[in-house]
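Collaboration report, partner site 2.

Our partner group contributed sequences for two proteins of shared interest, and the home lab folded both. The records are reproduced in the order in which they were received, starting with the first partner submission.
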Amino acid sequence: MSKTKLPELIIGDLVIELPIIQGGMGVRVSTAKLAAAVSNEGAFGVIASVGLGEEKQENLTYEERSKLAFREMIRGTKRLTNKKFGVNIMCALTNYNDLARVAIEEEVGAIISGAGLPLHLPSLNKNSKTKLIPIISSARAAELICKTWLRHYDILPDALVLEGPLAGGHLGFKFGELINPESPRLENLLAEVLTVVKKFESENDKKIPIITAGGIFSGKDVAKMLKLGASGVQMATRFVCTKECEVSQAYKEAYLKCTQDDIAIILSPVGMPARVIRNKFVERIESGERIKFACPFKCLKTCDPYAANYCIAQVLVNAYRGDLDNGFVTCGANAYRVKKIVSVKELIIEITEEALRELEEH
């Protein structure tokens, strides 16, 4: 491992100068400006597809608005960088197929896909330029993805993002696992996934890089994961309080002001646990209050608007805009450690320099 620079993240013929992926954060947290800035600094920027079609245009359906806004976001990112970048598309979206096709038509660097397992994603990929990267949370999921893709499409994932229990937003663990202090540790999950993947790599002569995510906060964390066998890391929380992230100031202030005790796990109306920063709105829904809403989006397969006590999409739109009386902020477990707003350039320099020091000392 070089002492003067971090190793590249190599995903087939996609070569990323730094082994850092900026996580895709939904409902306009990861937009063109942020993703382009990250890619311009040698890491891999990612825009999120969810929540881009919320602006009402009476002559368009939600699906049409979403496709149009997503395509415009991708093209806007291309205008800001000539480097490769990716997109995050949640499997739980009702218009998943449409959005995946848009990303493939636009030849983005990679589709990163979680909130469910993208078992049929290869059927949508009509070119070899876009890398397909599922998000998993266990060795069992890694094996299922690899077996299914081999059986039905004769391919393997180009890489896997292994997301541990300290991640932000919707999580791939049961509620009880997340509130249990003995919840699975990312380094243990990594060892298990590497064992599973090694078998598929040797049998099919293909490298499947593992990118760890969830609780990666510092350069020291990056170095630790590289030494444990990860090819790279995905970080999201650190990028919220950057100058290029386009969420409201109130959204960023929630990060800057929160304590560790303010970070909570709630049950989302879409059937998955989620990590958020507690505020008065969170306390209202935790008490069982039903927030009246008309479902304007019909965006998530797992959401029953008749049973849900609030609209997760509208809540996150409100938060993005700064209306935290009617919304909440999602975050990773280390959000309380964010103390200032910096540029993407400053953040990446800080992380890479610390990672290099850690690798040199050990």
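Second partner submission, folded after the first:
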Amino acid sequence: MYNILVVDDEIQIRKLIKKYAEYEGHDVTEAENGIEAVRLCENRRFDIIIMDIMMTVLDGLSASRIIRGFSDTPILILSARGEEYDKISGFRVGIDDYVVKPFSGKELMMRIDAIMKRVNSPKKEEKKDLFRYRGLEIDFAARTVVIDGERAYLSPKEYDLLSYMCKNKNIALSRERLITEVWGYDFFGDDRTLDTHIKLLRKTLKNYSDMIVTLRGVGYRFDTE
């Protein structure tokens, strides 16, 4: 099964997660702060990291940012706060999912399974390797984005969303279709997760942000016309 790193300064939370994870057959390693988590990740390979945000010794977002510098291990953030700012900050760092406390142990295990299915699913063959529109360039094979000659850094899910919309440019894409195709049928979030990623993409695209058009009551369109 999965080798899981649980990072939380509350021992009861760690015990709860460990209980459900071990029941599902997973191996669990515990860390009580962000610094310990970074050190563990530098020396060991985990399948997924469950990271609390509010910790007194290196908070979860800072630890996630450091880990993202050398590892692509999926990260699921836990937080007692559910403000959009926290979610945007987390997705900008490169986390894969966000769960607000208090949470159900069963739901958490389902979210872990959903993330791992997405990570381990075979990638579809790209029909086109490169997209260019004025100063915007997307290299599908390399998963890179260049804007007016400068490399743009997107989280994995930001890139997946931009890539899907680009490949279906000038087509009205419903919210349901975007969530299904980009997050998968096992998505456990809500529409706000999609909206948050759209906001992040528009900010990243800078002068090309207006290429993502909002279709009220429907969804979005990546417009090149």
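Feedback sent to the partner group on the second submission included the following. The mean pLDDT is 88. Residues 105-120 form the longest helix (16 residues).
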